[in-house]
Amino acid sequence: MPAAQLTSTGLDALPPPEMAGKAAQVGLIGAKDANLNDYVTAKALDSLFGAIAEEEVAIRKDPLGQTSSLVKKVFGALQH
Question: Are residues 39 and 78 in the same domain?
Answer without folding.
Answer: yes
